[in-house]
Amino acid sequence: MAAKFFAILSLAVAASALPVVPVGKAVYTEVEQPAHYEFQYNVQDSHTGDVKQQHEARAGDAVQGSYSLLQPDGLTRIVHYSSDAVNGFNAQVSYEGHATSAPAQLAYAAPVAKVAYAAPVAKLAYSAPVTKVAYAAPVAKYAYSPIASDAAPVAKVAYTAPLTQVSFSSPAISYHH
C-alpha cells in the first residue's frame, strides 16, 4: 500500500515540475485598417426648445468636426474642433445671437417620473463565536438529622457543558460555526 502511495505521489511531483507549454496559439489574421467615417445630425424640436447639430469626419488618426447648440440664455454656441497626432486636440468656440436676461422659456416641461424603490439592504451583524462556559463546582448537600437514620447522604451536583455550536441565518446571509 505504501509503495502505491509513493508511486502516485512521485508521478504528481514529476507532473508539477514539467513546464507548461501552450498547445496552440490563436492568430488574429485580419489587418486593422485606420478608421474612416463621417456623420452628422441635426435636432430642431419646437416642442421642447432643443436646438443642436453636429458634424464630424475622421480619416485615420485625424478628426475634424463642429457642433452647435442653443443655450438657455438665447446664445448659440458654435465649436469647431480638430485632433491629430501632431497638434493634439484644438477647439475654437464662438457665440452668435444676443443673450437675454431671463433664460429662454420652454414651451413644454417633461413630466417628472416618481420612482419609489429601495434596494434590499443586507444587514450583517457578526460577532466572534461565543463560547459560553458555565461551570458550577459540585455542591454536596448532606441531609442529616439528629435522629439516627440509615439513609445515605445526598450529593447534588450541577454542571453545564460549554456552548459549542452557534448558528445565524437570514434570507440573504447564513452563518454557522
Notable features of this structure?
mainly beta; structural constituent of cuticle; five-stranded antiparallel β-sheet; Insect_Cuticle_Struc_Prot
Quick overview of this protein structure:
The chain is mainly beta. Helices cover 9% and strands 30% of the residues. The protein is elongated and about 95 Å long.
Q: Which secondary structure elements does this structure contain, and how are they paired or packed?
A:
Elements: H1 2-17, E1 36-45, E2 50-59, E3 62-70, E4 76-84, E5 88-96, E6 167-169, E7 174-176
Antiparallel strand pairs: 1-2, 2-3, 3-4, 4-5, 6-7
How would you describe the oligomerization state of the chains in this entry? single chain
Distance between the termini: 37 Å
Q: How large, in whole angstroms, is the Cα Rg?
A: 42 Å
Q: Quick one: how many beta strands?
A: 7
N-to-C series of helices and strands: HEEEEEEE
User: What do the pLDDT scores average to?
Assistant: 74
Low-pLDDT runs? none
Structural class: mainly beta
Strand content: 25-35%
Apparent shape = elongated
Strand order within the widest beta sheet: 1-2-3-4-5
Residues in helix, %? under 10%
Q: What profile does the largest beta sheet have?
A: 5 strands, antiparallel
Number of helical runs?
A: 1
